[in-house]
TrEMBL record:
CDD domains cross-referenced by the UniProt entry: PBP2_polyamine_RpCGA009
Protein known as: ABC transporter substrate-binding protein
Broad class of where this protein is predominantly found: periplasm
Family of the protein in this entry: Belongs to the bacterial solute-binding protein 1 family.
Taxonomic source organism: Teichococcus vastitatis
Length: 354
């Protein structure tokens, strides 16, 4: 399956209003379900709006587990190699499902999860996973430090003379957004980001490395660092920025040059609880009110196409889901990434550690 940028954006932006009920055959469901999350307030919002209601409806106990993106993919590969799969649902990027399909259950046309096609946005059903949220990886900053002029691009992130202060970047085992922002800051046009000129990118990264005060590993850490790390600017997931601001952090962000964060639910091949996993994904796509509540709590748009109609204009203001914002989002070429993943990751890890 090749997922194109235009189809992803159309999927994320679609709005229509049919309703259906989840098809839950409790007698066929296992008693437990393990789902990858990222911890913190994001996991709490998933639990409150989706995990707990699913457990109440089915009796299936949902056990979320936290893992960085890199750890999730490393353990997924290790479990498959060992023939001992312990997890049920992981959360990769929707765009990379075909590149990691050797680890994933083939969902076909999502016939076993009819609510995905009936209540999800157009294109939410992928052969190896289901789109479940739409966000961006954004430039964020402390507005108290930049009262006369706010940063608006990744070039500003690298400009420590005009925008002084300590920076933060992720070290999650998935450095692609960091590489992209460095290329954009160095003047590479977005349509020429791939194939990546890694020598040029790392030369640019060398100029900002002395100013990186925090390498955050989880969304929760990226929120809490604003409380005590004296950070001026960072790359953050839009939902994490939204949550941090709600917790009282002095925080602003822009969707200009935001890098796509389109999350998927994917069932691992050989998952120990496959029936419960399919039932959860089908259940997830129902109940627009829960999706709207989740968006209000996390700042992410979900793939339930009825939910956005329940949000006020003010509530939508900080979401990425407007057509204008989605049109400007930067996407990763996961075909290139699949061919170069190990070498690029090794080089980035060595660079961070040096």
């Amino acid at each position: 399956m090749t997922v194109h940028r235009r189809s992803l954006i159309a999927s994320a932006a679609a709005l229509a209003l049919p309703l259906a009920r989840p098809a839950l055959a409790q007698g066929n469901l296992e008693s437990t379900l393990l789902i990858r999350s990222t911890g913190g307030v994001f996991e709490a919002a998933l639990k409150r709006n989706f995990f707990d209601p699913f457990s109440k409806a089915t009796g299936v106990r949902v056990i979320p587990f936290s893992a960085t993106y890199g750890d999730m993919m490393a353990k997924t590969a290790a479990m498959q190699a060992a023939g001992r799969v312990e997890w049920d649902i992981i959360a990769p990027q929707f765009s990379e499902l075909s590149q990691i399909s050797q680890y994933l259950t083939d969902l076909g046309d999502c016939g076993a999860t009819p609510n995905v096609t009936q209540q999800g946005v157009a294109g939410a059903c992928g052969r190896y996973g289901v789109l479940y949220l739409t966000g961006g990886q954004c430039l964020t900053w402390n507005p108290d430090l930049f009262k006369t002029r706010a940063p608006q691009s990744w070039a500003d992130f690298f400009d420590v003379q005009a925008f002084p202060g300590r920076r933060a970047l992720p070290n999650t085992g998935s450095p692609w957004a960091t590489l992209i922002l460095a290329a954009l800051a160095d003047g590479v046009p977005r349509e020429q980001l791939f194939p990546m000129d890694l020598d040029r990118i790392f030369r640019k990264l060398d100029t900002i490395k002395p100013h990186i005060a925090t390498w955050w590993r989880t969304g929760d850490q990226s929120q809490k660092m604003w409380e005590g790390d004296d950070i001026a600017m960072s790359l953050m997931w839009s939902g994490s920025a939204f949550a941090a601001k709600r917790r009282g952090a002095k925080l602003a962000w822009t969707y200009n040059q935001a890098i796509a964060d389109f999350g998927a639910w994917a069932i691992l091949k050989g998952a120990p609880h496959p029936n419960a996993a399919r039932a959860f994904i089908d259940f997830y796509m129902t109940n627009p009110e829960a999706h709207a509540a989740f968006s209000r709590e996390t700042g992410y748009t979900t793939s339930n196409k009825a939910s956005q109609a329940l949000l006020s204009t003010e509530e939508k203001e900080e979401l990425i889901s407007s057509p204008e914002r989605l049109a400007g989002i930067v996407t990763v070429d996961y075909d290139w990434l699949a061919a170069n993943r190990a070498a690029v990751l090794n080089r980035f890890n060595a660079w961070v550690s040096a």
